[in-house]
């Protein structure tokens, strides 16, 4: 191979390398510009969180076998189902706190979900005498889905179980007045009792949960 031909090959390869370097540099610059554009268009503010509002809790007190009204300030979402779950979560956090007057383990995570449905009339309920006339068509049935862990750890006894059930019913109605009926599920399934006594097969009326007079901190 002649020296002249070798020179031509070398120059050609050199030019190809330079051209490739230029192309790679341009691609890198374009990618960098797209990255900067993406950062500029990204939101600069944190996602909005629910504003704090006053919530009314009907807190069980074992010493007096009664429900005491308690006002709490907490962030409440606008969606009614999520709002109901947040309020009940706070109620169960109170029960799980040290020194609680109605000690029940589990806390707010014990509320798996709350579903709001049209209230059931007495004719729809059939033999269930607890579901008396629903009244206004706007009334709702709240289906509270508890976790199995909460039920498994709940203290047994008719009074303590009923206080838990009625405090949930009363707290729902106090914060969502259209909720007039409450039904309970455990891990998405019907269950006979809460911890051996309180009937979870029936539909409870929120009006059955009557707080003791006065508001307590």
Care to describe what's here?
The chain is of the alpha/beta class and 217 residues long. It folds into 2 domains: 1-42; 52-216, no CATH class. Helix content is 39%, strand content 23%. The protein is built from 5 helices and 7 strands, in the order αββαβαβααβββ. It has a 4-stranded mixed β-sheet with strand order 3-4-5-6. Strand 1 and strand 2 (66-75) form a beta hairpin. The longest helix has 39 residues, at 3-41. It starts with a helix and ends with a strand.
Q: How are the strands of the biggest sheet laid out side by side?
A: 3-4-5-6
Poorly predicted runs of 5 or more residues: 39-44, 129-135
Biggest beta-sheet profile: 4 strands, mixed
Percentage of β-strand residues: 15-25%
Look at the structure and give the mean pLDDT: 83
Secondary structure: number of strands? 7
In sequence order, what are the helices and strands, one letter per element?
HEEHEHEHHEEE
Radius of gyration: 31 Å
Structural class: alpha/beta
Helical residue percent band: 25-40%
Query: What is the domain total for the residues?
Result: 2
Number of helices: 5
Gap from first CA to last CA: 99 Å
Shape: elongated
């Amino acid at each position: 191979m002649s020296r002249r031909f070798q020179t031509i090959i070398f120059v050609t390869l050199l030019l190809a390398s330079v051209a490739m370097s230029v192309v790679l540099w341009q691609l890198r610059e374009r990618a960098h510009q797209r990255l900067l554009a993406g950062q500029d268009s990204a939101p600069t503010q944190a996602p909005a969180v629910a504003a704090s509002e006053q919530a009314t809790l009907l807190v069980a007190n074992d010493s007096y076998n009664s429900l005491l009204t308690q006002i709490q300030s907490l962030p409440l979402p606008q969606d009614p189902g999520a709002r109901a779950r947040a309020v009940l979560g706070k109620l169960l956090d109170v029960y799980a706190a040290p020194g609680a007057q109605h000690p029940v383990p589990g806390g707010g995570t014990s509320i798996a979900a709350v579903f709001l449905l049209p209230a059931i009339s007495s004719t729809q309920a059939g033999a269930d005498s607890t579901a008396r006339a629903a009244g206004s068509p706007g009334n709702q049935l709240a289906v509270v889905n508890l976790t199995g862990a909460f039920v498994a750890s709940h203290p047994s006894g008719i009074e303590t179980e009923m206080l838990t059930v009625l405090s949930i019913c009363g707290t729902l109605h106090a914060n969502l007045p259209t909720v007039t009926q409450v039904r309970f599920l455990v891990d998405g399934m019907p269950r006979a009792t809460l911890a051996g006594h309180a009937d979870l097969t029936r539909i409870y009326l929120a009006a059955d949960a009557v707080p003791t007079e006065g508001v307590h901190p």
